[in-house]
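Project standup — Tuesday

K.O.: blocked on the structure for the chain from last sprint. Re-posting the sequence here as requested.
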Amino acid sequence: MSSIETARGETAFDYDIVVVGGGPAGCAAGIFTARADLDTVIFDRGRSSIQRCAYLENYLGFPAGIDIETLYELMHDHAQEAGCEIVPDLVESIERRDDADGFLVHTQDGDPVTARCVVAATRYDGEYMRGLDDDTAMFETHEHDGEEHEHFDKQYAESDGSTPVDGLFIASPYGKTGYQALMAAGRGAQVGISVIEAVRRAEGYPEPVANYYDWMRMDTELDDEWSDRDRWREYFDDRLPADHDLGAERLATIREQEIDRRFAMYLSDDEIDRRSERGQQQLLEHIDDELILAAAREIDAEQRSNGT
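H.V.: unblocked you, prediction finished:
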C-alpha cells in the first residue's frame, strides 16, 4: 500500500506511482521514484518504441553499442533492483477516483489498481488518458489525406512533465526532448524527480526544502561540521520560509527524515568496494556465458605466458 500521506489526510492506494511504459523513459522515472521509497509499478506491454531499433550505437556507456534485448533486460533489472514492480500488461484507460484523490488504472488482463500519481511514458498512444482533462485540450486534430485524425498533444505537458491534471505526469520523449533513447532516459529521470518533489510538497515539505536529488558521495567528504546532526538541523531550518504552517511535531518528523536521507548518501570505502563488486556481478548476468569463458581463457593464457 501507498506510503504517501497528503496534507488532506491519509489515503490508501495500491501504488504511490503507476508508470505506463517500460522503455528508457518509463524505467528511468520508475528507478528514481522507487529509490525515493515510493511504491512504484511499471506496466509494460513489451512494445516500447526502442524495440524498432536494430541496434544501439549511441547509448552512453556501451562503447561498441548494445543490442536491444540486452539493454531492455538491463533497464528492467535496474528498475526491479531499485524496487519497482514490473507488470507485463497493457494499460487501457485511466480515470480519476470519484470519492478520493488519485487515479483508477484499468489494464487489459489484470484488476484495476489505484495510484496517487501516474507517469505516462509511452510515445505513440495516449488514448488511455482520454477523458482525464475536460478543460484543456489533451488531444489535437490533424488533417491527413483529406481525413481528420486526433493525436495526443505533444505540447500538453510542462517542461518538468507536470500537466493540468493533478498527479498526471508525461515522461514520453516528445518535442524538444527528441526521440533518441538516451534522451528519453534523461527525460524520464527529470520527470521522476518532478514526481518526487510533488509528493514531498503534498506531504507538507515547504517549497525551499521540497527539492530532491539522488547521488552517492564519499564519506571522506563528510567533515566534522557536517557530521553533526545539529548542523543539518540548522541548515534545514534556515531554508524554511517564515510563513510555513507546519506544526512542531510534523516539522521535526520531516527534518529528521531528511537528515537521515542525507547521511545515507555518504558511503565508506568498504561500502563503495562492496557495491562496485556487486554491480560488476550483476552485469555478468547479462553477458553471454561463452564470452565470459573465452575471456577467462585469454586471461589464463596471458598469465601463463607472463609466468604469473
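K.O.: great, moving the ticket to review. The helical segments are 24-35, 68-82, 181-202, 207-210, 229-238, 248-264, 269-284, 289-305. The longest strand covers residues 113-120.
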